[in-house]
Amino acid sequence: MGKEPRRKLPPAGIDKDDEHRPDYSRRYLTKEEFGRRLKEHLDKRGWSQSDLARRVDMRRDSIHYYVKGKHLPTSASLERLAKGLGVTPESLLPNAEIHALDQDERPAFSLRQARGAPDKVWLEVNQIVTPDQALRIQQILNERHGGESNEAE
User: Fold this and answer.
1) Within this chain, do residues 112 and 63 fall inside the same structural domain, yes or no?
2) pLDDT value of position 25
3) Residue 101 binned pLDDT confidence (cut-offs 50, 70, 90)
4) Considering the domain boundaries, does residue 88 fall inside one?
């Protein structure tokens, strides 16, 4: 008996039958949810973790950690995974830019009581916004100074 031929992978394609799946597009996926989503893509195509690893030129243990919900992919790895699966990075990991902030585990939004000022709070926003949104936030913050600008001239 000779060596068994290598199994041919079916072509990757954009998912068109996802209507029955939950809409993750407007929320922050946990590592576990991303892992389940990646596993669904593998199962749908009949691929093993090794099949995907070969297709995207990644180590199988990296794929394993993603599927098991232990890690989230970097931006570059997400691009490779999405391309290999024939889907968009956004469909695979919605709001990926927010996940990039996960490195230091800071919350996207937090309030803290200001010491010695019971009517004031510290606001921390750790979120990617458009330049227009950033300017509007700056304008709101400047209102506390009676319209003064804190911007550098």
Assistant:
1) no
2) 46
3) very low
4) yes
| Nearest to 123, CA basis, from 110, 133, 142 | 110
- Residues 70 and 68: their CA atoms lie apart, in Å, by 6
Contact 86, 12 (CB under 8 A): yes
pTM for this model (two decimals): 0.50
User: Considering the domain boundaries, does residue 54 fall inside one?
Assistant: yes
Residue 7 domain-assigned (yes or no): no
SS in 3 state form for the chain? CCCCCCCCCCCCCCCCCCCCCCCCCCCCCCHHHHHHHHHHHHHHHCCCHHHHHHHHCCCHHHHHHHHCCCCCCCHHHHHHHHHHHCCCHHHHCCCHHHHHHHHHCCCCEEEEECCCCCCCEEEEECCCCCHHHHHHHHHHHHHCCCCCCCCCC
Residue range of the domain that includes 118:
106-143
pLDDT above 80: residue 37: yes
